[in-house]
Write a structure and sequence with these properties.
Blueprint (H helix, E strand, L loop, with lengths): L7 H27 L2 H9 L7 H16 L4 H21 L6 H20 L1 H6 L5 H12 L12
Helix pairs in contact: 1-3, 1-5, 3-4, 4-5
Length: 155
């Protein structure tokens, strides 16, 4: 995988992970929008007015849709990360540390960026987890058939 050309496995892994993150976010939004009574108690416990459940659901839908569209996926990931970070902080504020909602939010946020990293060369360039010279060395080794020794010239 190079910054300008993700491998097929990386690309498809990123797409599948993107789909999973998007589906989880849409499912959460659907509960907020269509069955608000299921989350009104949790909203009240975290200090939010119960009548804002629909608004929270709409925000989640906007984040998920922006994330799912390739052209706007980075913006969607930024907004989604902000939303999920706010959820984590809200639970800290009411005394929860390591609660299931916090862990799910952390996992979704990390998965969203992981998926983007796997499928988007711009994110790989922005967040270089592997230095460029390591990528070049790995490519050179692969081109030589898996050996780490440089080719010897027989003069």
């Amino acid at each position: 995988m190079t910054p300008g050309n993700p491998s097929s496995a990386s690309l498809w892994s990123g797409r599948v992970l993107t789909a999973l993150v998007t589906l989880f976010m849409i499912a959460d939004a659907a509960v907020d929008i269509f069955h608000p009574r299921l989350v009104q108690v949790e909203m009240a416990a975290t200090g939010f007015p119960e009548d804002q459940v629909h608004l929270v659901g709409a925000i989640i839908v906007v984040c998920a849709v922006l994330y799912a569209i390739p052209r706007t996926s980075v913006l969607g990931a930024i907004l989604m990360t902000g939303f999920l970070g706010g959820a984590i902080c809200t639970h800290f504020r009411v005394g929860g540390i390591g609660t299931p909602p916090q862990l799910v939010s952390l996992l979704l946020g990390g998965s969203a960026w992981g998926a983007l990293y796997l499928r988007d060369p711009r994110v790989q360039t922005l967040l270089p987890l592997v230095r460029q010279n390591q990528r070049q060395e790995a490519r050179l080794i692969a081109d030589q058939g898996g050996t780490s020794n440089p080719p010897q010239s027989h003069a």
